[in-house]
Every structure is written in C-alpha cells, then in structure tokens.
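An instance as discussed:

___
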Amino acid sequence: MVGGTIAQQILAAHAETPQRPAPGSHVTVSPDWVLCHDISAYAGIERMHELGFSDVTNPENVILVFDHYVPSPNERISTQMNEMEAWVEDQGIEHFFPAGNGISHNLMAENGYSLPGTLVLGADSHTTTHGAFGAFATGIGHTDLGEVLGTGDLWLRVPETQRVVVEDTLPDGVGAKDLALAAMREFGTNGAIYDAVEFHGAGVRDLEMHERQTLSNITVEMGAMAGIVPPDETTREYLDGRAVRDYTPVEPTADAEYTTDRHIDAGTLEPLVAKPSAVDNIDTVANVAGTAVDQVFVGTCNNSSWADIQAFADHLNGESVARGTDLIVVPGTKNTLKRMNETGVANSILDAGGMVGTPGCGPCFGAHGGLLGEGDVCVGTMNRNFPGRMGPGEIYLASPQTAAAAAVHGEVTDPREVV
C-alpha cells in the first residue's frame, strides 16, 4: 500500500509504482481523462502533429467541449470549430460536446465523468474543479496536451500538499463562494505554487457537490496544482446512477505528511468580495457597500450550476434590475437552462430586466459578449478579475447572492439585508 496524501496515492496508481512518490520527484502517468475545449484543442492538435503524432493514442479517454467561443464570434473561430469536428470524427472521439451543451467542467460533473481516485489532465486552468470529487485534476498547457494526446502519457512533478481544515459551518446568507474567497485571503495568489490543497473539516463535509466545485475551482488562483476534497457519502450519493465508470475512492492515510496546516472558521464568515484587480484582494461586502454597479454577471465554471442560479433567483425575489445596471445570466449547461425554463426561473430573470445567454463560458474571459466599457463596474460570480479581463472596466468577484443584491440595488449590497 502506497499511502500518503490523496495526491501521492492517485499519482502512484496512475504511474503504476508500488512506492510512495516523494514530493518533488517525477512520475510518468496515464490519465483517466484528457479534457480540452475549443481554444485548447485546436492548439493541442497542432502541437500533437508537430511532435510527430498523427493519431490519438487513447481516444476513449478524450473529452472535447466547445464552450468558450459560444456562439462563435467570427469566421476564423467557426472555421477552426469545423476543422475540430472533422478531427473528432476522424479520431473516433466519442466524448464530444458541441456548442450549446455547456461548460466543460460543469458537463463533466453533471454527466458522471468526475470521479474519486481518477486522474484528470485538462487543457484548461480550472481543471482543478474536479478535485471536488476526490480526483487529482490539474491544468496542462498546449504542448503537454499534444504530448498526452499522442502518447497517452505525461510526465508530472509530484506536489507537496497543504491541508485546510474548515471548522464549523457557514451561517445563513453566506455561501460557498464566500468560503472560497476566504481561502483566497488565507493563501494569496502565490501561497500554494505547484502544491496540492486538501480540504477537510465540518465546514467542507457540510457542502453540497456544486459548492465543493466552487471551492476546488478557485485553488488554481492560489497557484495550486490541485484542490482536493476527500470523497464521502455526499460524493457517493451524487454519483449514484451517474458515474460513467467504476471508481475507487482515495483518502489520505494516517501517515500523510502536509507542509502546512491552515484553519478557517466558517462560522465567523460574512459575505466577501474580491476587489479589482486581484483575486486575493479580499474585503467584506459591508466595507465596499454602495459602490455603483453597471453590470452583474452570473455564470462561469465557478458559479453557474442550477443551485447557484436558483440561489441568485431566490434573492432576486421578483424585484426588478436597477435602472442603469445590466444583468447577464449564463447557465453552465443545457440541462440547467432547461430547468430554468421548466421552473420559470428564466422568465423571472427576463421579467426582472435581465438577459439569459447560451450555456457556455459567456463574458468571463472577454472574448465576446458582455464586455465592459471604460469606467464600468461589474459584480460577477466568475473566478478572475484581472485588468482587462472583460474590457477596460473593473470586476468585483462575489457570490450569486451578493450578485442578486447588486442587481436589484444597482450597487454593492449585503445580500443578508435583502433576504
């Protein structure tokens, strides 16, 4: 038995080594899934050919999703998508999700690809999201994507692991995004460079799967290689009847070694924001209340599940969007959009004066739609607020509940005041 941290055990299993791999050592691993999307796949295919490979070694393990440029913003992107669809057919890739199905990370979770004990290599930085299921999931670059497509293997450095214990549970009016921002405040943007982060404690066990995804998703902003939640009954219940493959859960053993133990008291948290223009520029909503808001954006792989949008709609509570404030809501998957339609949530957002977009990444990365003008302020549920991310305006990162309060009042507002 290898034992150790979750990261060590999963990497050892996928390197087929009987020894516990030491942090800092290197292993050659065979992933369960290789994830890519319309941006990364095009470049990855080019790299694969440059490396001398014409065929994908394990096409059954490749997942390709069109989610970033959806709908296509120009002729060049449309042409690239056509070429990739032809490549999918030629390579026999079964796990292909065309434009309109949703965001890659949301689709993996919803369709049972995200599984405990698995290794996911994704050509998208927020692949860490799948650590919420007890997987080792990490982002890779285009050249690494070309290599793993062509050979089926990839060389990885084994990370150190930091442990975060979340004590107590979240109070009313405070959500998983606030916990994620509290973790960002604890780590900063360079507090976990190339480390794995394991989340433990009552405050984590109390979270639903979509909330755990929010937490794991943001760990890449700390510099982490992976953000992992040990699987438990909540994980198993979610995957029951959903998992596409058998899986073997992995938990840390008693002799697991952590470089750092960090503690967060969830019971003392209040609604938080990340102020412009850094993800770790954390402040309380109360301290920035009254800041005028030109746009509210609800979506992205951090907060676009049905539960996130339902929480937003519940706080919208039949109110109208403030005059002078635009509201854009982009569901994470087609199934979420269908549920919004079936329950009337989509109509309530439209009746309030908001807009509902095509499932996908939406305005998050500034490629099309919802771009900010000079001096504009956006409150968004995304995971990044870098300068120029959505145009020349400024971005405050917040929970769906805080986003709803901002939409109704046209300024940053504590959501607990409008429940």
